[in-house]
Amino acid sequence: MKILITGGTGMIGQRLAELLLDHGHDVALLTREPSKSSHYRLFGWDPAAGTIDPAALPYADCVVNLAGSNVAEGKWTASRKHEILRSRLDGLELLHRELAKPGHHVRTLLSASAIGIYGDRGDELLHENSPTAAPADDFLADVVLQWEAAARGIGALGLRVVLPRIGIVLSPEGGALVPIAKTVRYGAGAPLGSGRQYMSWIHLDDMCRLLAQMVHDELWQGEYNAVAPNPVTNQEFTETLAQVMHRPLVLPKVPAFGLKLAMGEMSEIVLGSQRVSADKVLSQGFQFEYPLLKAALESFYE
Asked: Which end of the chain is more exposed for a tag (fewer CB within 10 A), N or C?
């Protein structure tokens, strides 16, 4: 199979591309910098400008869309919020326009989504059919609702569309784990806010194995929570990480008001609680290599 990945230079995209190559697929990347050196075939695009290499989509059997600006970078000013949203919608709108044309054989779109769609839900166990957060009350939920709607629109063209709602992806190479591990390593680790908010996580390797299975198997369609089957509270997460890294936790909890002062509205990323179920993924036959947090963290730090 020939697979075209957007966002292929990111943490998930890089690992997924390697895995798909190992599985014998041809992999190419859709990038704004097609002249860069790479051992993958590169096609250029500029979603904001609405331009794309005309050879890109005719190359592919499947498109994996991972493009989107990191929501945890920079304060959520009005302009930053606009950038976060458009970085997700512009690419999908461009893909929709081009996939509506003849001359390609793309049958599948795998388009990243996020568990942020559920909003802050305490200890409620969240399934794919759980109500989503009200967009007016939650910026991230609003972004994800629009993101998924843009991908579903492509499904109206006759493509199989899969929407993995991705949780906190654990890797020592990037993402949320890196700053948390840094504070623990230097003795400054502490639960955030009440510490009772749930974190729904997934090991990077499981994340990419799951995406690969979604690419291969046409039975996968629609929304799936891409999380490990055992979410933990922020306090459990911090304590387990400290145990695995052989570091004490000596500081009190970081108060929520301090985080809100420091981070503004973006503090909802770390203070919001999402206890997300993996039952649908498990019922589809996926087997996690790292279903438990301690083993996942030990794979990085032991």
From this structure: C
The domain spans of the chain are 2-301
Domain 2-301: CATH superfamily, name plus number:
NAD(P)-binding Rossmann-like Domain (3.40.50.720)
**Residue for token pair 């304590």:** 239
23-44: b or e for each residue (b if 16 or more CB lie within 10 Å)?
A: eebebbbbbeeeeeeeebebbe
* Bridging pattern class, strands 62-65 and 201-203: unpaired
Q: Residue 296 in contact with residue 201, Cβ under 8 Å?
A: yes
**pTM for this entry:** 0.95
Name residue 191's amino acid: P
pLDDT at site 259:
64
Which tens digit of pLDDT belongs to each residue from 47-79?
999 999 999 999 999 999 999 998 888 888 999
Percent of the chain with pLDDT over 90: 78
